[in-house]
Design brief:
Helices cover 34% and strands 24% of the residues. It is an alpha+beta fold and 202 residues long. The strands form 2 sheets. It has a 5-stranded antiparallel beta sheet. The protein has a two-stranded antiparallel sheet with strand order 6-7. Helix 2 packs antiparallel against helix 3 (114-123) and helix 5 runs antiparallel to helix 6 (184-200). It is elongated and about 60 Å long. The two termini are 32 Å apart.
């Protein structure tokens, strides 16, 4: 059995540029690997003022969606606003207030639970607005360094598949390392055959 030295993996849930220091160090400037998926997303946490349990509900209009999902334990809710766009409306120059106003302008005239969501969004301390990005790479390795999880193929957060892809990638890589006698070159060459197809669909 191959027993490598312990290592740690830090998981990132999206962000304005899916930051991954390891990817940047090994492959250079990472913005070239980021693909915009045609939407921007805003997330924030709020108290469960609706009394919901274990549920996710949404309301859609042309080009935009509002959604509320219960967080495990049902004490809190996660609010989400999604805006479809051919180009992201989020820039690094936008401060938090500008991002809040942007969401309010887009959803300010909508009904359903949007008015109460906008109020909760204003008081939330974890509000974040970011473009929906997907990491796309032709290769997940260079030399003896191989990437798994978000560093290799960060999917859009709305797909809900980040942890699953990380586990699949680690499982396949471990299998290829075992089959290749611990030789990274052999393992890396065999991994994309099984893993790339599934990741590219997300």
């Amino acid at each position: 059995m191959i027993r490598p030295k312990p290592w740690a993996m830090k998981q990132h849930r999206g962000g304005t540029d899916c930051p991954q220091p390891l990817r940047r160090l090994t492959f250079g400037e990472h913005n070239r690997f980021l693909h915009y998926l045609g939407a921007d997303e805003a997330y924030f946490t709020m108290e469960n003022y609706l009394g919901w349990s274990d549920v996710s509900r949404f309301h859609a209009w042309p080009g935009r969606v509002a959604a509320i999902t219960t967080i495990p334990g049902n004490a809190e809710l996660e609010g989400m606003f999604l805006l479809r766009s051919t180009e992201t409306t989020v820039t690094r120059e936008m401060d938090q207030e500008a991002r809040l106003r942007h969401i309010e302008q887009v959803f300010g005239g909508d009904e359903w639970l949007v008015p109460s969501m906008l109020g909760a969004m204003r008081s939330a301390n974890d509000f974040r607005l970011m473009p929906c990005l997907q990491v796309r790479m032709d290769s997940w390795h260079t030399g003896r360094v191989g990437l798994v999880g978000d560093a290799a193929h960060c999917p859009d957060p709305i797909a809900g598949q980040g942890a699953a892809l990380a586990l699949i990638g680690a499982y396949v890589l471990a299998g290829e390392l075992a089959a290749g006698g611990g030789n990274p070159a052999v393992a890396f060459a065999g991994r994309p055959v099984e893993a790339t197809g599934h990741a590219s669909k997300l």
